[in-house]
Write a structure and sequence with these properties.
The complex is a heterodimer of chains A (about 240) and B (about 260).
Chain A: H1 2-34, H2 41-80, H3 83-99, H4 102-117, H5 125-156, H6 160-177, H7 180-192, H8 198-212, H9 218-244
Chain B: H1 2-33, H2 41-78, H3 100-115, H4 118-130, H5 137-161, H6 165-182, H7 187-197, H8 203-217, H9 223-227, H10 230-257
Helix pairs in contact in B: 1-2, 2-8, 3-5, 4-5, 5-10, 6-10, 7-10
The chains are: A mainly alpha (about 240), B mainly alpha (about 260).
Chain lengths: ~240, ~260
């Protein structure tokens, strides 16, 4: 029980450290530059408290359950050597972790609101929720695909440079094709996917693989998977835009 | 207060759907494919309860605090009275330099959140260790933070002027490719990685709300066309500044030894 409380306090401190710079910068701007009080200060304080508490619980829960289980599984599948199961597992891991990624949930909801304002979808709760989930599932499928490609590349020992260069060429080509209204969301979604849940589990998969294959460097292989996972969302979301917008 | 609990209940239901896939996937692979019992089931169950609760509180707090904060700041920064003109002379007449506080705010948010980012601190200490002290951990953190600050400031300038996003990002990639050819080998994977680690779960919603708020407050800008892209800028620029930092420190140590 005491360990539990200590661990929770540690993640609370971590979340506080994430939030402090934002609070400081906003506070300084209000006092020095605008010289006026923030509207609805009570709600802001309550919300900041919820963000702090929520993020701490979330990280603490990940460390208790998801990370040990996921890391053990990722390691097991990487070492077992059955390529098909490994690829199926890689896809599922990428898909499942991305769907639950908090930053992606947030940005998808914002994107749905912006799309409703631009009259691409109807401005009603069902249409908004539908657009937001469709966007999130698109990104989740793209991260799953990235891990399948990335794992296959590691097993074959192909050089990563060509994939990254080809990927960025594809991004440039698709930018010419995609409707302008999706491009901002697509570019942003590349940076969003690699955050709280996905990175540790994907790194575990990369490290497990590198350990089971001779002469591979765990740092390099784990990194390669993340690089793939920030590239494919741009491509898939632009394809999503071609279909929906 | 009652409204808050109703909201929390709704968010709990939708969040259950978000966490369900990863729970199911891990369970199926554990029991059906590997056919092994879980080492400490009670602990893992507690973990999922915490993840669920945490996600609900976090999302609710976003709606109450971070999103409105980003929008309010954007509205205040674009207020014609604040920008120096009178209220009636608004709409479209302002030069981009009138929005200078927007760029200062963007750079300040980018720099401060990045310097304090735990993932970055861990990565830079590791880099100092691996390089045998050739890369300075503090210098690396500052290089990444300057990159994010430059990225967000330039990103807000793009929103103010309305230039198309893809020209910035594509030319950014070209610069990164050229730098990759000349940068010290050791720093390249680290530089690429630093783009991803800077955008934390708290920074992303705040910065997104800021961009959307700017695009809806500045006359002639469209939220969907102009509001997004700040995250892309914030992930691109650290790659450049980290490689530039490595090149500079290599050059300095070369001139010193001569």
């Amino acid at each position: 029980m005491r360990d539990e409380i200590q661990a929770l306090a540690r993640s609370l401190l971590g979340s506080l450290r994430d939030l402090t710079p934002i609070i400081l910068v906003v506070g300084i701007f209000q006092v020095v530059v605008f010289q006026q009080p923030l509207p609805r200060l009570g709600d802001l304080l309550l919300g900041t408290g919820l963000v702090l508490l929520g993020l701490s619980f979330f990280v603490h829960g990940l460390e208790l359950g998801l990370f040990p289980l996921g890391e053990a599984l990722a390691f097991n599948f990487a070492v077992r050597g059955n390529l098909w199961w490994l690829l199926v597992f890689a896809f599922s891991l990428g898909f499942g972790t991305t769907v639950a990624e908090p930053a992606l949930i947030a940005i998808a909801a914002e994107a749905a609101e912006a799309a409703a304002q631009a009259e691409i979808i109807a401005d009603e709760p069902a249409a908004l929720a539908g657009y937001a989930s469709a966007l999130r599932y698109t990104v989740a499928v793209s991260v799953g695909t990235a891990l399948v490609l990335g794992v296959y590349r590691i097993v074959r020992g192909w050089s990563i440079h060509w994939f990254i260069v080809a990927g960025y060429l594809l991004v440039v080509l698709m930018t010419a094709w995609a409707p302008p209204s999706i491009i901002g969301i697509a570019y942003d979604s590349g940076g969003v996917t690699t955050s709280t849940i996905t990175v540790p589990l994907v790194t575990a998969l990369g490290v497990g693989l590198a350990n089971s294959l001779e002469g591979r460097n765990p740092m390099v292989e784990g990194f390669g998977l993340i690089a793939f996972a920030s590239l494919t969302p741009m491509l898939f979301v632009m394809a999503f835009g071609i279909v929906v917008h | 207060m009652g409204e808050l609990f109703l909201d929390l209940g709704n968010t709990l239901l939708s969040t259950l759907w978000d966490v369900l896939p990863i729970a199911l996937i891990l369970a199926v692979f554990q029991f059906v494919v590997l056919r092994r019992p879980v080492p400490d089931p009670a602990r893992i169950l507690w973990g999922f309860v915490f993840v669920l609760l945490g996600l609900v509180l976090f999302l609710e707090g976003l709606e109450l605090a971070l999103f409105p904060l980003g929008r309010t700041m954007a509205a205040q920064l674009c207020d014609p009275v604040f920008l120096g003109g009178s209220a009636d002379e608004a709409a479209g007449a302002l030069h981009w330099s009138a929005y200078r506080w927007v760029y200062v705010f963007g750079a300040a948010i980018g720099f401060s959140t990045t310097v304090a980012e735990p993932a970055l601190i861990a990565v830079s200490l590791k880099a100092e260790e691996v390089s045998g002290g050739a890369i300075d951990a503090f210098g690396l953190r500052i290089a990444v933070a300057i990159g994010v600050a430059l990225g967000i400031a330039l990103g807000t300038w793009r929103i103010v002027t309305g230039h198309p996003l893809h020209w910035f990002i594509i030319s950014g990639y070209v610069v990164v490719v050229i730098q990759t050819l000349f940068a010290p080998r050791l720093i390249v994977p680290l530089a690429y990685d630093s783009g991803g680690v800077t955008t934390s779960t708290v920074t992303v919603p705040m910065v997104t709300a800021l961009g959307l708020g700017l695009a809806s407050n500045i006359p002639g800008r469209d939220p969907l066309l102009d509001g997004f892209g700040l995250i892309a800028f914030a992930s691109l620029f650290p790659m450049m500044t980290v490689m530039a930092y490595a090149q500079l420190s290599e050059w300095f140590s070369a001139t010193r030894s001569n």
